[in-house]
Amino acid sequence: MPRLYKTSEVAKRSGLSKQAIYNYLNMNLIKEKDKTPAGRFLFDSKVFKRLKLIRKLNQSGYTLRDIRDIFFKVR
């Protein structure tokens, strides 16, 4: 079974704040893989690749809305 990461673990490993992770979730830039019985988000390892891409695009001058538009147009 693949390892799942809590929001705090994702934040720590990615160098982002938990609030940034929640903002990305609210903007549909990332998706949780599952939730705990208490309703806390769990992520698979793919989230780290996605966060890295978001960060690179953002550092290149794209806003989070631009990035969201790019992701939804690609689908």
Explain this structure to me?
The protein has 75 residues and is mainly alpha-helical. It has one domain: Orthogonal Bundle (Multidrug-efflux Transporter Regulator, Chain: A, Domain 2). It contains 4 helices and 3 strands. A 3-stranded antiparallel β-sheet has the order 1-3-2. A hairpin with a 5-residue loop joins strand 2 and strand 3. Helix 1 crosses helix 2. The mean pLDDT is 94.
Task: Output the keywords.
mainly alpha, single chain, Multidrug-efflux Transporter Regulator, Chain: A, Domain 2, 75 residues, 4 helices, globular
Q: Give the oligomer, counting copies of the same chain as homo and different chains as hetero.
A: single chain
Helix count, per DSSP?
A: 4
Instruction: Work out the helicity level.
Output: 55-70%
Termini Cα gap: 27 Å
Strand order, main sheet: write it out.
Answer: 1-3-2
CATH uppermost class: Mainly Alpha
In short, what is this structure?
By secondary structure, the protein is mainly α.
Task: Please give the structural blueprint.
Blueprint: E1 5-6, H1 7-14, H2 18-26, E2 34-35, E3 41-43, H3 46-59, H4 64-74
Antiparallel strand pairs: 1-3, 2-3
